[in-house]
Amino acid sequence: MARNRSVLRVLSAVETYEGAGFLVHRPFPTSALDHFDPFLLLDEMGPMELGPGEAKGAPDHPHRGFETVTYLLSGRMEHGDSRGNHGRLGPGDVQWMTAGSGVVHSEMPETEFASRGGRMHGFQLWVNLPRRDKMMPPRYQEVPAARIPVGRSDDGKVVARVIAGEALGARAVIDTRTPIVYLDLTLAPGGVHEQPLPAGFNAFAYVVEGEGRFDASGTEAAAHDLVLFAGDGDAVRLEAPEGGGALRVLLVAGQPLGEPVARAGPFVMNTRAEVVEAFEDFQAGRLG
Fold first, then answer.
1. Does residue 5 lie within any of the structural domains?
2. Is 8 a domain residue?
3. CA nearest to 284, candidates 276, 266, 106
4. Number of domains the chain contains
5. Which domain holds residue 248?
6. 37 located within any domain
7. Is the same domain home to 244 and 158?
8. I need a surface site. Which of 17, 85, 98, 197 has the fewest CB within 10 A?
9. What DSSP assignment string belongs to the chain?
10. pLDDT tens over the chain, length 288 residues
């Protein structure tokens, strides 16, 4: 029988602005939580209703030493980088970029979307790379919405889009450098989901929409709340109470690296000297 984890604490995301000035809700890093090994940052982009010409993005900027996972719920974005890669993201699409030894890239609203405006909503998660992979060649995994596996509970009240790991009989198509679970779960009122997790994984839930309960004691959280789970079990329990609305949650878990974290801006390495080297390489044009 599964032992469900208790909730360690619930934190509310803070509002801030990124890139050229687009709104994000950021549960970490903040003064309350720097990182949650192996996860370095979670940004909820929006949600924003944008008029024609109002959409903003993140112009050219470098990364080294970690991975960025962009998951778009609505809106359209396009990207390009110093190695000649280009791509587009629409609703439900995922881009898993392993920066590795380094790239300079941009993430901007798609030209047509920026022109007409619309709803922009999505997430970016930063995943640390282990020391052995920090200088690996950069790579992209771009998975359109139609290829994201979907699992459903027997009673039909729980739907899981499986970005990494597995849930409800569905297994992700994305390859990760660190063992990770990344699920987009929607629970209808009265829905309950118990997600098995390996022992030792750090786990959190981020509430996208609605309100829910997250452990046996009934700990509650609502939209823009981050739920940190303790490591005292081999599963987590999510519930959408009867009589309320649907609950949508990102459930994310990963094997902690247990390595030193040295970070400054867009670079995450193991030592301060490696961060300085990254800045020097960027300034010398060695990232493109």
1. no
2. no
3. 276
4. 2
5. 148-257
6. yes
7. yes
8. 17
9. ---BPPEEEEEEPEEEEETTTEEEEEEESSSS-S-BTTEEEEEEEEEEEE-TT----EEEEEEBSEEEEEEEEES-EEEEETTS-EEEE-TT-EEEEE-TT-EEEEEEE-HHHHHH-EEEEEEEEEEEPPGGGTTSPPEEEEE-GGGS-EEE-TTS-EEEEEEESEETTEE-----SS-EEEEEEEE-TT-EEEEE--TT-EEEEEEEESEEE-STT--EEETTEEEEEPSSSSEEEEE--TTS--EEEEEEEE-------EEETTEEESSHHHHHHHHHHHHTTTT-
10. 679 999 999 999 999 987 767 789 999 999 999 999 999 999 999 898 989 988 888 888 999 999 999 999 999 999 888 888 888 899 999 999 999 999 998 888 888 898 999 999 999 999 999 999 999 999 989 999 999 999 999 999 999 999 999 999 999 999 898 899 999 999 999 999 999 999 899 999 999 999 999 998 899 999 999 999 999 999 999 999 998 899 999 999 999 999 999 999 899 999 999 999 999 999 999 887
Q: Which two tokens stand for residue 91?
A: 């609703």
Tokens in use for 107?
């993430």
Token duo for residue 267:
């670079």
For residue 186 the two structure tokens come to: 């929607």
Write out the two tokens for 227. 């739920």
Tokens 């303790």, located at residue? 230
What would the two tokens of residue 27 be? 């549960």
Looking at residue 252, its amino acid is: V
